[in-house]
Specification:
heterodimer, A: Glutamine Phosphoribosylpyrophosphate, subunit 1, domain 1, five-stranded antiparallel β-sheet, 10 strands, B: five-stranded antiparallel β-sheet, 30% helix, globular, cytoplasm (chain B), Proteasome subunit beta (chain B)
């Protein structure tokens, strides 16, 4: 990737018509720990891997509540993500102050994208090194958007960003057609499975991941560790027994600790949970 | 050459009265629901009470447009607080915020006479009373609005708040039980409705306890 003649500042084009600084910013997103999002017609789930700098430190916060109906998961430079979350929160508060109604998600992501674009066209700025998965519910339904440092944004049924996100994307690609009509709990289980794909070997525990939900009648909130652990236990056991009934919210009594063999292999996601 | 007078005022007084009484583990906040202008009634069913946080309720009389603007401001600031601190504001914090917000407009004030009531961090009832520009004080009970001149002396008589100049210093919290305090509020408004033309129609009572917030209504004189 030896292209350093034209990559010194963001306002220099390369002869091939590329802005390398922007692409390097997108590289920073790929280096961050994974974040995934998926949606049905009524709910959107965000999940992320909790990465801590060292064993002594706590993990960074990667999922932020923006408003009752919008949340965001970030990957990349967490500091940039935090600042953008603050911007998003302010925009939501100002909009609902003026219009007494929630900010439509599509409007917010456009504002974010425009903000990102500015940083690609000023010599004294740099692009944000963070990718944002914006999950929101408004009058037009459930939405999941991805905002990248380039100023582009896309809407997705399901997506994953960050390191080892390809594994999660592969899993999601296999199953996304079912998501639209999935129940909320099945969606959470799919999110946990997708997160597990990115862990590639490491056991999936509630301490290594964070999951957040927003949906019809359910304001955005991050699930607490206990609930997440219960769901992890439920589906790990279901996977082992090739259980057909993906009963919503079925909390299994047996602890998940015994299924050490499950956590080991990467391709366990082939559990035939065909709904 | 006489000084030119304003031919228009940005303010109006929509009347009404508010009361708040603090107890050992509860707080009662009440206000009538009549909204008037001049000698006319605009509506008989307007709420002057606003829930600012989980354990913090404000009742305001005066110019309701300013009251609404003030409530929206506080709600927005509370949201920001929740995002930053990951918890709700407690009543004393909200009290300070309200004071600052009012003083911010010292030279074009919110025409809003407020009483703030709720539970403090320890779960004890607290009431804060304000003037239009943010001067405030923590008290055991208070009233504001058009009926306050009729209501306050009666509350003084019933709730025997000891003078802060006396020693030993006594708590401003009322020794009444919740049911007694609610009854007192009902009595007080029934009396105020008799003589204050701006108070009447319906009484809205909000009770804040550790279990949550409860709302109650009582009919008042409609004349």
């Amino acid at each position: 990737m030896f292209r350093n003649q034209y990559d010194t500042d963001v306002t220099t084009w390369s002869p091939a018509g590329r802005l390398f600084q922007v692409e390097y910013a997108m590289e920073a997103v790929k280096q961050g720990s994974a974040a995934i999002g998926l949606r049905s017609k009524t709910h959107i789930i965000l999940g992320c891997v909790n990465k801590a700098n060292s064993e002594l430190s706590s993990h960074q916060k990667k999922i932020f509540k923006v408003d009752d109906h919008i949340g965001v998961a970030i990957a990349g430079l967490t500091a940039d993500g935090r600042v953008l979350s603050r911007y998003m929160r302010n925009e939501c508060i100002n909009y609902s102050f003026t219009y007494e109604s929630p900010l439509p998600v599509g409007r917010l992501v456009v504002q974010l994208a425009d903000k990102a674009q500015v940083c690609t066209q000023r010599s004294w700025k740099r692009p944000n090194g963070v990718g944002l998965l914006v999950a929101g519910l408004d009058e037009s339904g459930a939405h999941l958007y991805y905002n990248c440092p380039s100023g582009n944004y896309f809407e997705y049924q399901a997506f994953a960003i960050g390191s080892r996100s390809q594994a999660a994307k592969t899993y999601l690609e296999r199953r996304f057609e079912n998501f639209a009509d999935s129940s909320r709990d099945d969606l959470v289980k799919d999110a946990l499975m997708a997160i597990r794909e990115t862990l590639q070997g490491e056991t999936l525990k509630s301490s290594t991941c964070t999951v957040a939900v927003v949906g019809a009648g359910e304001p955005f909130h991050i699930l607490d560790q206990e609930t997440v652990q219960q769901m992890i236990d439920a589906f790990e056991i279901v996977g082992e027994q090739e259980g057909s009934a993906a009963a919503a919210g079925q909390e299994a009594a047996q602890p998940g600790a015994a299924v050490a063999d499950q956590g080991g292999s990467t391709d366990e996601g082939v559990a035939p949970m065909d709904i | 050459m006489t000084k030119q007078q304003a031919n228009w005022s940005p303010y109006d007084n929509n009347g009404g009265s508010c009361v708040a009484i603090a107890g050992a583990d509860y707080c009662v906040i009440a206000a009538d629901t009549r909204m008037s202008t001049g000698y006319n009634i605009l509506t008989r069913e307007y709420s002057k009470i606003c829930k600012l946080a989980d354990k913090c309720v404000m009742a305001s009389s005066g110019f309701q447009a300013d009251v609404k603007a003030l409530q929206k401001q506080l709600a927005a600031r509370h949201l920001i607080y929740q995002h930053q601190h990951n918890k709700q504001m407690n009543c004393p914090a909200m009290a300070q915020l309200l004071s600052n917000t009012l003083y911010y407009k010292r030279f074009f004030p919110y025409y809003s006479f407020n009483v703030l009531g709720g539970l403090d961090n320890e779960g004890k009832g607290c009431v804060f009373t304000y003037d239009a520009v943010g001067s405030y004080e923590k008290v055991g009970y208070s009233s504001q609005g058009s009926g306050s001149t009729l209501i306050m002396p009666f509350l003084d008589n019933q709730l025997k708040s000891p003078s802060p100049l006396l020693l030993p210093v006594q708590d401003a919290v009322t020794p009444l039980v919740e049911a007694e305090a609610v009854n007192l509020v009902k009595t007080v408004f029934a009396s105020a409705s008799e003589r204050d033309i701006y108070t009447g129609d319906k009484l809205e009572i909000v009770v804040v306890t550790a279990d949550g917030i409860r709302r109650e209504y009582m009919e008042l004189r409609k004349d």
